[in-house]
Amino acid sequence: MLKDNLLIDVNDGSDYIDGLKIKANNLDELRQIRQLIIDAKNPYKYISLDTITDIEELSLELALDLYRQTPMGRAFGLDPKTNEYKYKDIRTLPNGGGYLYIRLAFEKIVNSFKGLSEYLILVGHTKDKNINKNGKELSENSIDLSGKLSNIVAAKADAIGYVYREKNLNIVSFEGGEDSIVEARPKHLRNQKIVLGESDENGNLKAYWDRIYKD
């Protein structure tokens, strides 16, 4: 219900949603969609990537290629008998060494869509993460991405809203706190809780995107 928004579905979860949407089942299809947008001279005001957790999964292939381009990774997964590469999970590198390349690959994919629209929206899930603060074990609401990637994505976002439902209302919270990644730089969103949509007794939906995206 956001006008001029292209939803790029990497999660295969948009079948029951009406709207401007296209599916990407793998990294090649995601690249093809990007090129189609460029060829059409960037016609969309908004582009939504749904979900970033699935994009991280797609980035594993690119992360492997990036690692194999380095001197130390050149022989990673190489069969000495056939001299051919066999797929190997970059996450199996010792001491978590593969996650650097996953972060690089993920950012490369997401950054490739920056500049193709006025706004880039990243849709994702949250997870509870245990943290130690002043010797106390606390639970923190975090973006469902691995390692440091969650904090990197959060740090680069202009606004992070937590979406939840309350009876017939869809609410987006930008109220930050110590146990949440939610926050916003724009003044009209900062520390706000905004009703984004509501339904009536017949199930008709109404959206208030102008409360978030102001001209």
Q: What's the structural blueprint in terms of helices and strands?
A:
Layout: E1 5-9, E2 21-23, H1 27-39, E3 46-50, H2 52-68, E4 78-79, E5 84-85, H3 98-111, E6 119-123, E7 126-133, E8 136-143, H4 149-156, E9 159-160, E10 162-166, E11 169-173, E12 183-184, E13 193-199, E14 205-207
Parallel strand pairs: 1-2, 1-3, 3-6
Antiparallel strand pairs: 4-5, 7-8, 9-12, 10-11, 11-13, 13-14
Helix pairs in contact: 2-3
Protein model, in words:
The chain has 215 residues and is of the alpha/beta class. It has two domains: 5-126, no CATH class; 158-215, no CATH class. The chain has four helices and 14 strands. It has a four-stranded parallel sheet. Helix 2 packs across helix 3. It is globular and about 65 Å long.
The number of helical elements comes to 4
How many domains?
Answer: 2
Q: Specify the oligomeric state.
A: single chain
Low-confidence stretches: none
* Class per helix and strand makeup: alpha/beta
Based on CA inertia axes, which overall geometry fits?
A: globular
Please indicate the percent range of residues in DSSP E strands (runs of 2 or more).
25-35%
**Main sheet overview:** 4 strands, parallel
Estimate the mean pLDDT confidence: 89
Helix fraction by DSSP (H/I, runs of at least 4): 10-25%
